[in-house]
Please model this.
Amino acid sequence: MDKYIEDVYNESLRRNPIQPEFQQAVREVLESVEPLLAARKDYRDAAILARIIEPERQIMFRVAWEDDQNNVHVNRGYRIQFNSALGQYKGGLRFHQSVTLSVVKFLGFEQIFKNALTGQGIGGGKGGSDFDPHGKSDNEVMRFCQAFMTELSRHIGADVDVPAGDIGVGAREIGYLFGQYKRLANRNEAGVLTGKGLNWGGSLVRTQATGYGLVTFAQAMLGEKGEDMDGKKVIVSGSGNVATYAIEKAHALGAQAISISDSSGAVYDPDGIDVELLKQVKEVERGRVSDYAARRPNAQFRAGEHVWSIAGDIALPCATQNEMNEADVATLVNNGVKLIAEGANMPLTPDAIEAAQRSHILYAPGKAANAGGVATSALEMQQNAGMAQWAFEKVEDRLRAIMLDIHRECLETADEYGKPGDYMVGANIAGFRKVADAMLDQGVI
Ligand code: NDP
Model:
């Protein structure tokens, strides 16, 4: 690492002790942008690096709520308004017991560059809570969402900060959050949240967008090698929003997804994942992947295991951060995997990324490959601003065009900085440069 960059990194370590996920995300970006920093003295003079890794605002708050037995619970809420150089803060809310300040900061930091890559004029933010929606009744989830939004509502707005879903925050939670915001604000401000229901301001394709965009990106990567998805076996982790619609799109392009997982274990389904059954189990019944496996003749549920020992051509990690390590990559490559594209945010550990690069397989980071979700959220904001609802085909065409633009920009930028085919360097430099240039224009703030 260059001395100047190392100094900035060490200062960040000093200032943010015990934030491993955040430091991991910062380190990856700092290492990638080294050649850019070498060429841009103006970035150093304006301390862009030190400013870009410091959130503009960090909000932490108490969320007190009552369960169905009138027991009082206390959770912690977060909203990190990381960078507004390109537009209002934009990024999801995660409700999961593993949420900490470090997790929300890493997600917010990644979001800055992802949002820049979409070209949609949105800044970066992220939020959430250590609340676990699993096993809670609808009424308990509603009371939690209302308590959470009561504080969050002071800090967001269509032109200020626009949250959306993430792990544990789907259509149900967005509905309760929007209802409470409307009650407090006393106005129908549709653009304050994205991922809304289709009959109250939502956009067609938003539900599918991250998974569809991911597979569009993977297809473009294969296209560079003269290949496509047709006939490929796809190993998918996770079983939520991103995983489900990645599988649906992979099947539409002639591939066959053969696995899913959740925090209790992995499912191998050699006949190909039945997407309609998966939606029924996960979206309607709120069940587990073991419930899916029980209804499929040849599927195996492997308790406590990951999906990475299953053989296939393509791996799409779509569950959570650091879910694939160096040994997993070695196993995947030995078993024939030629491409890894991140549906989740930061699912590969730093060692796993290095292993993928050493093996010369295709690897795409989440900030490029999973940008379809937030890109479509920006399209939802555009529809809200114009009081319009676009047709499914129109939104899907726009999503596809954005993903192909990001793909092209990653490759062109990687070429420009002497790292041909390196999607990580391409994504980090292309995203960073857009934000840094806007920060230069806007002065020292
Ligand atoms: P969902 O809540 O819909 O699904 C998450 C899935 O991942 C579930 O199957 C969940 O299983 C599993 N999972 C979560 N944590 C763990 C864990 N610690 N170990 C094993 N499995 C786990 O979330 P999404 O599909 O929306 O999000 C998945 C990933 O994609 C996240 O990294 C998110 O940040 C990223 N992403 C999401 C976008 C979106 O539009 N939704 C956009 C861009 C990125 P279980 O139920 O057992 O916890």
Notes: Residues 98, 165-168, 170, 210, 238-243, 262-264, 318-320, 343-345, 370, 373 surround NDP (CB under 6 Å). The mean pLDDT is 97. The two ends are 27 Å apart (CA to CA). The longest helix spans residues 392-416.
